[in-house]
Amino acid sequence: MFQTIPFNTPDILFGMDVVSKVGDYAKKLGAGRILLITGPHVSKAGIAEKVISSLKAKSLEFEIYDRMEQEPYTTVVERAAEVAREGKFLVFIGLGGGSVMDVAKMASALTTNPGVTKDYFGVEKVARRGKPTIMIPTTAGTGAEITKHAIFVDVEDHVKKAVASQALQPNVALIDPMLTITSPPQVTAAAGIDAFIHAAEPFVSQGANPLTDAIAINAMSMITRWVGPAYADGRDLEARYYVAMGSMMSSFVLQNSGTSLIHAIAYPIGGEYHTSHGTTLSALMPSCFEYIKVAKTPKFAEMAEAMGENIYGLSEREAADKAIEAIRALLKNLDLPGSLKDLGAVQEESRVKRWAIDAHKEQRLLSRCARQLTVEDIIKIINNAF
């Protein structure tokens, strides 16, 4: 009845053009040499120049590492970590989407911890914090700038796996909606639905608490209202502002209540098909939520209302059904897959069973699920997702 509620976040600065403050924060963290980890697309978009300008204004020495790949393979982290160790950098800046920021967090950790990334898959296995980190997202959705998680594709079995450790939580997050303006529509949609799920999935999980519930309701409402306009017109500054704010709020929920079933199934499927995290989650969300709705019917009714549905006069069950309808409509409006068939996955018995077995191993996530699930349950959910 009486919960003990931890609530952890980095030092956060949110707002238009706050990226100009990165030099100030780096200096406060004791920056000598700085490693700026980013991707080639970010550099081409001119976003990196904003960071570089701020660092130069504070006369800070830095090196840029932008040799990133589209998929966050563990080998990418090892290469970045090698550069990090050899360069004796004192502060790390991650500038980009979730994969770039995850690489920056893990590369920093590997400067103070032995071994390689795969040694730390699991919960709280990173013993020591790395060098101080500053995260600057260029998309609105992954939450990597706030959370203690880092997700990578294991090169040995091509399954996405998580390093989840408080030692990875960034020191500073600078969340600047202006940096998301150059995100293409498909990235805006995929990141936006990722943010929505980071609020919605914990909201209907066993990890929920009154504090994260209040934030989740507002995050779901804000993202539902504004992600469509941001997708339709990336120059809409008001939409960009509120989607970024909704994403930040959903990251608080993710960090402090945690995800569950959708993410557990997404790891093996996304790892096999190399689909973006947001689109993989999108394809699974309706089926997963349909399966757990019976356990959290009142909360799904609240979700429907948060998404703008008129539930007046409806029973809780009818209102809960409205939430699933609203989710399907949102995915359709954003041109996101609402099924694994839409995602391009192939429905084969052996393949589905393998995904279900891999997903069931993710007890770190499934322990928070509103329903106790067997491998057979997960097979059913995956087949329904087609």
Q: What characteristics describe this protein?
A:
2 domains; 6-stranded parallel β-sheet; 16 helices; Dehydroquinate synthase-like, alpha domain; globular; alpha/beta
Tell me what the structure shows:
By secondary structure, the protein is an alpha/beta fold. The chain folds into 2 domains: 11-180, Rossmann fold (3-Layer(aba) Sandwich); 185-384, Up-down Bundle (Dehydroquinate synthase-like, alpha domain). The protein has 16 helices and 9 strands. It has helices at residues 22-28, 40-44, 47-57, 74-87, 98-109, 185-203, 210-232, 237-257, 261-273, 277-292, 297-306, 316-333, 340-343, 349-360, 363-366, 375-384, and strands at residues 11-14, 33-38, 61-65, 91-96, 122-123, 133-137, 149-153, 160-164, 172-175. A 6-stranded parallel sheet has the order 1-9-6-4-2-3, with helices on both faces. Strands 5-8-7 form a 3-stranded mixed sheet. β7 (149-153) and β8 (160-164) form a beta hairpin. α11 packs across α12 (316-333). The longest helix has 23 residues, at 210-232. It is globular. The two termini are 39 Å apart. 55% of the residues are buried.
